[in-house]
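PROTEIN DESIGN WORKSHEET
SECTION A - STRUCTURE
LENGTH: 440
TOKENS:
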């Protein structure tokens, strides 16, 4: 519970602070007085004043923060003598740089975090000859495409696939069309095509193909029997009630058939074997027993030099940005549902879950959130940073600002848009969490 509370504060805190720090440092560099540096909105919880700037933490810190600069509001009366250190007194170019600094700091943080991850050691799955399939559901699109148990998937749409996660991403970004699939069957190369079915949210259904993997635990979900029994991520199940286990699928089938039955697991952990007793619970939605774990796989830790880590971080950041734009395109074209978007509430929940899987997964989440935060803040939407940059650009072209009346209208439209989006996304988050809780 402590991890689930601290993790979201850490994820949101570092992302918000870095963003606002970018605005703050750029404003100071541009010769603009900063009156307040706020972490969060609403009622002030704690604050301290240093020089001319008040630093404070407010109640709604999960929803962002702000840097209040002198003379940055329309119609604001100057506090004392006009010194030329007011935000609106600066030329449009300098104001744009101050606004741009926030999103750029988020993108820079993502690159730094990715560099640290590759330098510390990135857990990478060991898949020497493709993703092996254990079983294919009869009558599914995968079965109709000719896939069989024992096949190894080596490429999808001409792209090599080394993890099921990458396999899933490629399918998500290519909806409603046949996908070229390359298989290795007993050393023979086979090319086929498949058009996966999709759920109501527009995401592909890949439960119809079961991966053949060792019975190594990935994530251990909070509140389920596995956690209560002391099972951990990375544990390998060797036997169940004295019966040897050779694959994840074999373990899963046995567990599913034991609702409410105390079961003894022989577990390998750090080269030691221990016995653990766990009682599977019936998942009413799925119709079978579960212990609350996801499938892991064989991993090896790969560490890179500083220069190579930095290069790989740039590549990873570029891939994340491309994924974001492709995902948004699918949303706009209504090929996937807005239900797949997570807002502050959803990210709080996800942060707690990811933190339980380890520090590296949490760092990966921080990098991904900062990529998304940085890019979305650059969109030409009124109120966010990109919208301000557009207005400053128009002012530079016209050589005079828009009228105060027009700017007020634009601000109101932006505020209404953001509030509407926040309400809708939060509503989706609440429904998703309620569904998970009821599913238990």
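SECTION B - SEQUENCE
RESIDUE ASSIGNMENT:
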């Amino acid at each position: 519970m402590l991890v689930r509370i601290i993790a979201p504060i850490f994820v949101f805190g570092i992302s918000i602070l870095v963003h606002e720090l970018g605005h703050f440092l750029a404003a100071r560099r541009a010769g603009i007085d900063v009156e307040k540096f706020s972490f969060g909105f609403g009622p002030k919880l704690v604050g301290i004043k240093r020089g001319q700037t008040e630093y404070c933490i407010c109640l709604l810190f999960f929803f962002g923060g702000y840097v209040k600069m002198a003379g940055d509001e329309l119609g604001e009366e100057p506090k004392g003598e006009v010194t030329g250190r007011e935000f609106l007194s600066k030329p449009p170019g300098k104001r744009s740089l101050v606004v741009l600094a926030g999103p750029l700091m988020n993108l820079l943080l993502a690159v730094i975090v990715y560099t640290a991850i590759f330098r510390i050691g990135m857990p990478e799955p060991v898949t020497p000859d493709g993703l092996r399939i254990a079983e294919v559901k009869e009558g599914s699109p995968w079965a109709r495409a000719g896939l069989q148990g024992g096949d190894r998937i080596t490429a999808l749409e001409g792209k090599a696939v080394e993890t099921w996660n990458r396999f899933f991403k490629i399918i998500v970004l290519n909806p409603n069309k046949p996908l070229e699939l390359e298989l290795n069957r007993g050393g023979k190369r086979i090319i086929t095509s498949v058009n996966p079915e999709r759920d109501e949210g527009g995401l592909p259904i890949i439960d119809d193909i079961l991966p053949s993997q060792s019975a190594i635990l990935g994530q251990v979900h909070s509140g389920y029997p596995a956690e209560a029994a002391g099972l951990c991520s990375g544990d390998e199940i060797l036997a169940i009630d004295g019966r040897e286990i050779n694959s994840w699928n074999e373990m899963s089938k046995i567990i599913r058939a034991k609702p409410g039955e105390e079961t003894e697991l022989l577990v390998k952990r750090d080269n030691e074997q221990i016995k653990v007793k766990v009682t599977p619970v019936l998942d009413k939605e799925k119709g079978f027993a579960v212990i609350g774990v996801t499938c892991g796989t064989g991993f090896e830790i790969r560490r890179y030099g500083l220069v190579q880590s930095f290069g790989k971080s740039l590549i990873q950041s570029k891939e994340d940005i491309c994924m974001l734009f492709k995902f948004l395109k699918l949303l706009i074209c209504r090929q996937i549902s807005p239900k797949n978007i997570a807002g502050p509430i959803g990210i709080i929940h996800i942060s707690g879950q990811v933190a339980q899987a380890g520090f590296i997964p949490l760092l990966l989440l921080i990098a991904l959130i900062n990529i998304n935060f940085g890019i979305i803040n650059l969109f030409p939407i009124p109120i966010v940073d990109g919208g301000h940059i557009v207005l400053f650009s128009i002012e530079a072209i016209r050589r005079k600002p828009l009228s105060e009346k027009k700017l007020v209208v634009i601000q109101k439209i932006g505020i209404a848009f953001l509030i509407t989006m926040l309400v809708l996304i939060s509503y989706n988050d609440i429904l998703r969490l309620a569904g998970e809780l009821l599913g238990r």
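SECTION C - NOTES
The chain has three domains: 2-119+367-439, 131-210, 217-296.
The chain has a mean pLDDT of 84.
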